[in-house]
Amino acid sequence: MNEITPRLRFAPSPTGYLHIGGLRTALYNYLFAKNKNGKLILRIEDTDRKRFVEGAIENLIDTLNWAGISFDEGPDIGGEFSPYLQSERLGIYKELAQKLISEGKAYYCFCTPERLEKLKEEQQKQKLPQAKYDKYCLHLSKTEIEEKLNSCIPHVIRLNVKPDQKIIFDDVIRGTVEFETNNIDDQVLLKSDGFPTYHLANVVDDHLMAISHVIRGEEWLSSTPKHIILYDYFGWEKPIFAHLPLLLNPDKSKLSKRQGDVAVEDYREKGYLKEALINFVALLGWNYGDDKEFYEIDELIEKFSLERVHKSGAVFNIEKLNWLNFEHLRRKPDTEVLKMLRAEIEKSEFKDNKYSDEYLLKVISAMKERVSFIKEYLSKSPYFFHAPETYEEQNLKKRWKEDSAELLNKLKERFELLNNPSKEDFEKVLDEIASQLGISKGQLVHPLRIAVSGVGEGPGVYDIVYILGKEETISRINVALQKLS
Fold it and tell me: What is the pLDDT of residue 259?
């Protein structure tokens, strides 16, 4: 028997930014679909109009595009890809809700918010494990229902959950899961504004879009029995469920913005590479069964499986993300880094300066093992982009000696004699002077580094002076001699 081609969906709500957990859900759906040569659909669940944020849909799509997560299907609007919008499918949900009512599987509820709040308070006083609707409107007569409908009394449509039954289903990640229907509320399916709740729209769309696998966060596990009841009531085949583990702060609390950034957009703004963020997020709850941590997207697609997703929560470790960003940046071709560096320079105080590709490629080569972010080429080595205006005080106290100015002057005099010097030429001059004077090379290296960079750390001083070139190096030595002598 041939295996079916999987069809999956990522179905976010347009409530603002894309949560890092949402990115993981989208990524796992994407990896599974690609691994199985399946299809991935983008569906926007925008039926909660109170939480709808203007511009959120466009932001979601832009962020997913940036992350490299592509989709295979959506309504064709002018030849361009567009996600499915649940708000454009209201007639479908209403018709199917009415079908459930006609079969006694759902019912009209006319209870006011005041009555529902009072009911909730009473149940809390009784210390019941959870608040549930008491099925009051299920027992209204047909005449009462018709009168209330004709009088346009606000109402919702509720799911009629049968008591004393078990809902059992298999979850790819969690195994067999069991719920008692006595603990399941008569969930609202259609709200008084005519919009469906998540539960109805989710099930209807997953069926009509032929979704074969539902991969979503653990927070939706408790909603799954309600969805299964709906599948059974409609007589539809159920998809395969897989509920992903929670994302946790280092203290094992649920990941929240109180302890750090949770929006993908924040990490993008801070300069994290999409490759590093995708690599990191993929490992939040999954591994291939070995110690490997560095992955490119093609390898993730090849190795990903739901069976390797963990049940327990995944800790968000920012140190690992920073390390992965360093590794991904370090392994990029210098020509690609060059494009990113030029874009960063355009946003900086150095945007009006002119730097040749040859010059910037030398800077990249010198700094590659020292930066984790593109912006650090500027913040960690500003001396490649402008001459130092001040000199690090702590370094001066430690490295600038009584004879430093005299030694620096000797270096300058010898540098002036060089013709188009290489890195080795600068090093040879320094070695010769140290040998002639019977001093350590450090006595020359330290003041030279201070003069050309203003700081005590960075790549080798020979790399710095070679990249800066003879004229700029001598110019900076002269300024240092004036300021520090």
Answer: 67
250-271 as b/e: b if 16+ CB within 10 A: eeeeebeeeeeebbbeebbeee
Query: pTM for this one?
Result: 0.92
Query: Which secondary-structure segment (H or E) carries 438?
Result: none
Q: Which two tokens stand for residue 308?
A: 């390797």
User: Which tens digit of pLDDT belongs to each residue from 190-231?
Assistant: 999 999 999 999 999 999 999 999 999 999 999 999 999 999
Q: pLDDT category, 15, cuts 50, 70, 90? A: confident
Name the residue type at position 189: L
Catalytic residue list contains 347: no
Smallest Cα–Cα separation from 34: which of 80, 82, 69, 66?
A: 69
Q: Looking at residue 50, what is its pLDDT? A: 85
Task: Check residue 245 and report its DSSP letter.
Answer: P
Which residues neighbour 464 within 8 Å (Cβ) at sequence distance 6 or greater? Answer: 366, 383, 384, 449, 452, 453, 458
Alpha carbons 361 and 402: distance in angstroms, whole number? 37
Sign of the alpha-carbon torsion through 197, 199, 204, 209: positive
If you count DSSP H runs as helices and E runs as strands, how many of each does the chain have, helices first?
20, 12
Residues contacting 426, CB < 8 A, separation 6+: 415, 418, 462, 465, 466, 473
Q: If we measure between CA atoms, which residue out of 426, 425, 421, 428 comes closest to residue 448?
A: 426
**Catalytically annotated residue among 118, 162, 254, 257:** 257
| Mean pLDDT on 400-429 | 96
